[in-house]
Protein: Phytocyanin domain-containing protein
Organism: Vigna angularis var. angularis
Amino acid sequence: MALSPLTILVVIATIFLPSIAVAKDIVVGDDHGWTVGFDYSAWAADKTFFVGDVLVFKYAVGEHNVFKVNGTAFQSCTVPPPSEALTTGSDRIVLAIPGRKWYICGFGGHCSAGQKLVITVQPQTLPPTLPPAPAPSPSKDGHGFGGWVSKKILTIFH
Ligand SMILES: *[C@@H]1O[C@H](CO)[C@@H](O)[C@H](O)[C@H]1NC(C)=O
Ligand SMILES: [Cu+2]
């Protein structure tokens, strides 16, 4: 079976891409931002969060804020000291550690009214397992992996 040039290029690209998973910015609530009257559990339900992703909380400064809390404070809407608040209106939180994370708004009544977000952060995914590649060797006779690729590319483009 002859492999098409496209297939071979895809294989080469797959081998040399540093990683399949790309960290991304995730705007909480999408266009709604961080506000009252939005269902953040429904919003989060169909999403997967990975280590390296960044949560972005967008809101009008002075109308909301963001506190990272634990599960207990999340349930009871217990607001931590003001010094722990994020208040820029475009707060970025890098998801650095896998596990459950809880966020609430500290403005009066907002958390109880549903301005609270709980997510589970998954460990970073690894690229799909590839069959073991022959160890690259600096040999001049082209038996190394690099030589194999060059030969294939020459085959394609000659
Ligand atoms: C959760 O957070 C609250 C408020 O910051 C704190 O008083 C409490 O001890 C914490 N609970 C746990 C289990 O860490
Ligand atoms: Cu709020």
Remarks:
- Strands lie at 25-27, 49-50, 54-58, 67-69, 90-94, 99-104, 116-122.
